[in-house]
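Q: Protein A?
A:
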Amino acid sequence: MREFQELWPGGPVFAQAAHFPLGTDSVLLADFANVRGVKKGIDLGCGSGVLSLLLLARTERLHMTGLELLAESAETARDNLQANALETRGEIVCGDIRAARSLFRSGAFDLVVANPPYYPLGTGALPEDPAQAAARGEVSCTLCELCAAAGYLCRSGGRFCLVHKPERLADVFAAMRAHGFEPKRLRLVCADRKAAPSLILLESRRGGKPGLAIEPALFLRGEDGEESAELKRIYRKE
């Protein structure tokens, strides 16, 4: 029996997969992603599907597909869609991001989103549990493989949005450009005004022209040490 919870009162309910607990990064990405004019989106490595749920809550015109390697997590994501009566607006495919060409047609999606593993292999210790290791490090899919899949799946003029670590920014830019994306919009996430960025939110355009807009930083805490007004807006705590 799954235990469902709300992210905010009256919002979508969700159960969490054992290896993919809900993190702030997915919530921030769901708020950052531009869904204007988007009809079909895909979440690469969707885990329990919470990112898709949050995007579906933003617009009724959107249909989301989640692609997840682990069967257990994919089943949790399907249960989450069902618990929110969103089976007609979402689907979960259990499969490998690296096999995207055998699962979907080229250019099938207007929007690709991803909260991928942040760390390349060999840059630090990973958890002993294989699933947790794959969620943290690039065990099952590298950044370049992720961008290659996104480049195949995203239509010309479509958007690819992801959350990542600031120390990988140069790698992210290089991988995106290598697979046909031009970075268009960047936002840095900081714990507070004195802290260095801890996350980046990035939107790119398939076949876009050069030109990057850097948005004001998102601060998670205010000067009083409490949650910032913007974080409260994102979590519907206003």
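Q: Protein B?
A:
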Amino acid sequence: MLSMQMIRDAADVLDGVARCTPLYPAQHLNDNVYFKAENLQVTGAFKIRGAYYKVNSLTAEEKAKGIIACSAGNHAQGVAYSAAKSNCKSIICMPSSAPISKIETTKKYGAEVVLVDGVYDDTYKKALQLKEEYGYTFVHPFNDEMVIAGQGTIGLELLEQCPEVDQVIVPVGGGGLISGIAYAIKHIKPECRVIGVQAAGAPSMFKSINLGHIITLDNVSTIADGIAVKTPGEITFDIVRKYVDDIVTVSEDEISSAILMLMETQKSVAEGAGAASIAAAMFNKVEVNNRKTVCIVSGGNIDVSIISRVITRGLAKSGRLVEIVCKIPDTPGEMARMLSVIGKTRANIINIRHDRNSIVNTCFVTTELETRDSHHIEELISALSKHGYTVLNKS
């Protein structure tokens, strides 16, 4: 059974292996908000804590069988790294859709990677099949007390770094991270609130807690691949139900905006799962004005190939990028006049497309623009309307 002694023992085992990650003020967000940068952890995410503590606890016989695990990427790297430190073989089942950077890094740590179509839950089934077939030792990413104890060391650290903390916001997938943190915090400072946050496209723990029993989602869809889990763990569900105060959800656009904010203001890179806690604070899913709040930025292993798409979504969400469709008369010089109106608002044109259709003497101009914020967009639309142009759509 999970205990505070296990978590303290995990801290001793992890000393010199996992970093005590820094706690930074998120002043551009709110003076009460801090973020604990687990994106700067060894292997780029918090998962090394639970993975290493679990692998270190295995017997020589269990290690000799070879270790198998399943993961969307961060637990994969943690197990591969830990197995290499113990000089044992590791086999990791990963979704074929996992970021290429996570797959390649897992291989570089020495693991044999088995790609599986689907999401985390499909890799779990494949890992169990291979475990039965070859006798490997299975290391679960969240439904294991040793793994949970390793993640709980974050709770010990942040209470030492910020004893006056009032609440902690934690990303939730299967529940291992929040289970460890909540257990540690509630045993040391029970008045401190612990809030979970899930992607709206993968709310398995959120729905399970609200219904009072574990449910399995039919599908999950989110850029936060690290928390895209269809079914929470039995152990983690019980701990969350007992020690976590609330769970909220955030949208894809909100996660994207949080990633962008961290890049711009904190000069810090977070993956979707890692930025979910920041998104909850940014978009008022959790009240932070009167509470000293720590957001756990759980990982930074974002694939560079999707960063541009995430930034685009984040810019659009914050009103700094907009596409408008305008109906104008199909007469010489009319487009130049319309663009002159746009120019006077100080919006910057990125792309422009001019289309004729079946309406005689009318055309449609689609313009992609850089703007300051949502107020600037309304100012732009108002200026166009005053000059007689009809804005049909904005996105």
